[in-house]
Amino acid sequence: MSETLTVQPSPSPDPVPVAGSPRWMLWRSPPGQPPWARPALLGIAFVAAVLYAWNLPRVDYAPLYSDAVRSMSESWKAFFYAAVDPEATATLDKLGGSFAVQAVFAKIFGYHAWSLALPQVIGGVLSVLVMYRVVRRWAGVVPGLLAAAVLTFTPVAASMFGHSMADGLLTMCLVFAADAFQRAVLEARLRSLLLAGVWVGLGFQAKMITAWMILPALAIGYLLTAPTELRRRVKHVGIAGVVTLAVSLSWIALYTFTPASARPYVSGTTNNSAAAMVFGYNGLGRVGIDIPGALPPTGRMSGPPVLGPPDNPLDRSKLRGSQGEEGGPGQEGGPGQAGPGPEGGPGQAGPGQEGGPGQAGPGQAGPGQEGGPGQAGPANRDPSQLKPGDVMVLPNGDVIVGPGGEPPPPEDPSKVSSRKDPVFSWYKLFDGHLGVAIGWLFPLALLALACGLWSRRRAERTDPVRGGLVTWGVWLATFTVVFSASEVAHTAYVATLAPAIAALSAFGIVMFWRAFQNGGRQAWLLPLALAAELAWGAWLWSAYPAFLPWAKWGTLALGVLALVVLILTRVAKGASTTLVKAALVVGVVAMLAAPAAYSLSVLDSDYAGDSFDANAGPASGSA
Questions:
Q1: HSE-CB of 91 using CA atoms within 13 angstroms
Q2: In whole angstroms, what is the distance from residue 207 CA to residue 282 CA?
């Protein structure tokens, strides 16, 4: 395995500006890079822009959060305090960083669903461009392009960046933090490390504690690799940590030192504490640890989030509603209140005042009283007693409707899962709707990490390749463990895994490709990676067997064909160089085809996800 030291991707430093070089010719590659590098990158960025912006004309409003954005765009006090209502009486149950950006766009372009989603589209394209720079600087041009492509075609990212979700801004901030960190670790530059801390702090404003999950990777990477003495490394990390805390906690400090009578009530709490909302309701409460003053997270309590004081919550009927002036879908506050079933006890939640989409109308939530007709309760199993609008689901799955009613439309076969979704299990990232959202390249990324670290085990402490492997590896491990142990209420959460998976996968493809061309025992790494990806891909494809069967069998067949040819060229002598290169290309395409197929499905609005739960393919909306 030590032979791979000579075939691993190598760093590509930032180009030095050449006097007289026309900076406006953006399509030309900088000095020191292949002439095709910049055009290829721009092509990938263009594909990302089309993919993320495709559904802007028909994108939906994010339930509840769009109300806050509208209020923030109309009232400076609401903007400053991230209030959900124009009178600024109560905040959201989240920090308002990402919603402030959306409010600015709403102020500029008007309040529309597309103007609220536009910042995420821009952030997604910028993330792809910066991802290239980060990986190119670490491992070279080809890995950089591959990483940009892998990020573009990550299914959850393809959906998330097209909707008005805070996770898009968080992912962009983390990629930007990795970019600044990389400059810092290569030159032991404190200024760049401080900038990385600022980006993490801004990510905290968007998605709170989730942003801090990158800190172990950055701290360990800098302490291990930065080319300076240990005392200075520790000092730099400490100063950067202080900056990160200052930026992260600025909004909490604002609320803590502002008299309660002069600011909105902090939703998600019983004691009006911003710290309880951030670190309890949105933090440790997700893993079952209760913090004084924090309400249980929405996933552990029935009904929509409580806005304002729990004993006197905000009347949602006073909110402006999630629509533009032309009229659109009404307020979507979450599950409606239970409607009474006929004689049989409480019925199933229907579209109530705080429930599903209301009637289209300018500036008001749709009507509905107590959830409407409910499902027949357990005490009433006599179909003859059903009333108009009632629905009874029998134990065998059959549906009986009341007089004059129509049965619900049949479920799209392509969206039916073949097995139970492991929503609350430790392996949730490796199966079901989260697996197909983020997990296609797990085997490739892990194999690349293991082989890369083993081959660099004797490298110098300041070796940038090993340092990058450690950083991406800790990033991947930290987010994977936390998400596996906690409640993942929305699929978009796992998009923060995408940069690490993209970097490691791109590194592995190039490393295994070069190892195969060099021959020897290391040449078997590429067939091994391809075989692992084929087996893993078959497992994930089987979760939704009716979705794109032609793509499933096509990608698997391509992969098997490439695997057979690669093995034959290793055991047989005199194989054609052209045949070997063709097999290499087909093998790489086969590994990347499955996540690309899922990502491209967002071009069909039925598989594009929504602003409540972003996912691509048949798992969209199934969280």
A1: 28
A2: 9
